[in-house]
Amino acid sequence: MTVTDTPAATAATPPPRQSLPGRAWALLRNAWRGLTSMRTALVLLFLLALAAIPGALLPQRNLNEQKVAQYIADRPTLGPWMDRFELFDVFSSFWFTAVYVLLFISLVGCILPRCLDHYRALRTPPVRAPRNLARLPLHHAQTVARTPEQVIERTRTQLRGWRTEVRPGTRDGEVTLSAEKGYTRELGNLVFHLALVGLLVAIAAGKLFGYEGSVIVIANNGPGFCTTSPAVFDSFKAGNVNDGTGMTPLCVRVKDFEADYLENGQAEMFTSNIEYQAGADLQTDTWRRTAIQVNHPLRVAGDRLYLQGHGFAPTFTVTFPNGQTRTETIQWRPDDARTFLSSGVLRIDPPGGLYATDTERRQNQIAIEGLFAPTALFHGNLLTSAFPKMEDPAVAVDIYRGDTGLDTGRPQSLFALDPEQIKQGRLTKEARVNLRPGESTSLPNGTKVTFDGAQEFVNLQVSHDPAQQWVLVSALAMMAGLLVSLLVKRRRIWVRVYPSTDAAGTVDQRRTVVEMGGLARTDQAGWGGEFDRLRARLLEEKTETYATGASPARGTETTPARDADPTGE
Q1: Predicted pLDDT at 542
Q2: Is the predicted pLDDT of residue 4 greater than 80, yes or no?
Q3: Number of H-type helices and E-type strands within the chain
Q4: First to last CA, the chain
């Protein structure tokens, strides 16, 4: 009786349905594998570079909040939406931080398993010799007048620096040697990626614990400034875990400033002579002299003092009707980087007691707004600058009298008057005049305004980054690892030796057949020449040589190949 299986009986049993925890675990495992792949790390690195572009093109709130406000005001529809997506706070935004953190996790999750694999590879002996060495890209076979033991011993001696392993072969009297070199290539690759992680950590640590402060100082050997508080800086940016307290004590006085220009007005070098106190010098009131230049900061007490820019600060003296005077010097903003034509405003409050009431005092405040040219060039009454160095200074100013807004409590621009004050009639234009040093003009109420000249100012930045040295170390380690991974090649050599036989099949113990095979695990460029040199060093005597692919067999007569390329290339 024959029993046949029915279709229902032969149908494949469906696999059991995975439980919900099992599916969740599988999803997490696959997501982790995808995140920690090198492809994902490269994509995240590209996204990080792409995400930094808005931070370079758009004004950033932590650098210049006024520019951000003006940018949004000029674009009433698009600007608020850009602000919602934190395009004006790129480097502290949630999406930039997310890419940064994901890149860090991806690199760590990718590199650590590779480090473990490399460690295991260092402890694993070289792989066994392939069964057919003639199929390798580089192959050589010949007969030598030595015993197999002598050939193997000589080969091991010559392959210093290679990891070798000797094993018995599958035939009687056969011995194989496996050699491998170039593990440093993977080590360099790992060093590069570990240094990249270190670089990211160092940059993040510097942003967390560092600070930067910029201040404008008149270069006239004045009192200077001390880093006692963020309030001494014109702009200050502290790290996320730094509130601005506990700054490194440093006092600076600017003696002078010198700018060197070419004949066409191009800047050649900026130099400022300064005096500073730090550390124990603060207790002994000792001032040390030095000079700082662009890209040559003062490094002291873990901080760096940079010379970032310079400009001009006009000086005006206002003589009020009762004979009292007010003299003020304030920096004006360079509007033309080529000629240093500058603009700005100066606000002067009348002396106390000159007017009976505060209302009357505010109505007689003086505001001077206009242009400054270090080397004046007039087109009629229009002022421009012909050269960035101060050789023939002049100003073209509008002089206002009235409420300048000093008592309103609202922030005022350092370089422009509030147009609302003029529009509402609180400020009245009293004069428009061009002045050279020593010249003056009088207002209808008897007030006299004198232009005394100008002094140069410097823009200094105090920067504190506790991780800066680690950034340098990580960058150097990245370069070293990259060079090693590019220059070192991973290659393998196998040598198989066994006693030679004559045509009758008789074993000749005095002669040995040697087969060599070589393989580069990465790029093979230059490996053929190294293989030939190794072959010549290992088998230096004149012997019978067989062409690549013509492996001599036992019991058969082999014919030497004349003028054949032993490497098959």
Answers
A1: 45
A2: no
A3: 14, 24
A4: 68
State mean pLDDT over 22-33: 82
Burial 504-514 (b: 16+ CB within 10 A, else e): eeeeeeebbbb
**Residue corresponding to tokens 């935004």:** 93
pLDDT at 552 over 50: no
Q: How many CB atoms lie within 10 A of CB 63?
A: 14
Task: List the 163-168 sheet strands across, edge first.
Answer: 163-168, 175-181, 491-501, 507-520, 138-144, 544-546
Residue 78, SS3 per DSSP: helix
Cα–Cα distance measured from residue 317 to residue 295, given in angstroms and rounded to the nearest whole number:
37
Mean pLDDT of 476-499: 90
Identify the helix (H) or strand (E) that includes residue 164: strand 163-168
CA-nearest of 113, 117, 118, 128 to 180 is: 128
Q: Rounded to whole angstroms, what are the CA distances from 566 to 140, 158, 186, 447, 527?
A: 5, 20, 31, 103, 14
What contacts 24+ positions apart, CB below 8 Å, involve 28-35?
A: 32/109, 35/102, 35/105, 35/106, 35/109
Give me the long-range contacts of 76-85 (CB less than 8 A, separation at least 24): 82/58
Q: Which of 100, 302, 91 is nearest to 211 (CA)?
A: 302
Q: How is residue 109 written in tokens?
A: 């999750």
pLDDT band (50, 70, 90) for residue 470: very high
Cβ neighbors of 227 (< 8 A, separation 6 or more) are 213, 247, 248, 249, 250, 251, 303, 462
The rounded distance, in Å, linking the Cα atoms of 208 and 223 is 32
Determine the Cα–Cα distance for residues 45 and 67; give it in Å rounded to an integer. Answer: 30
Backbone angles phi, psi at 178, to 5 degrees: -110, 130
Which has more pLDDT, 519 or 6?
A: 519
* Six token digits for residue 482: 């990259």
Helix axes 468-487, 183-209, angle to 10 degrees: 160
Q: What is the mean predicted confidence (pLDDT) over 35-57?
A: 87
Amino acid in the structure at residue 279: G
Lookup: tokens for 487:
């220059």
The residue with tokens 């600017």 is 254
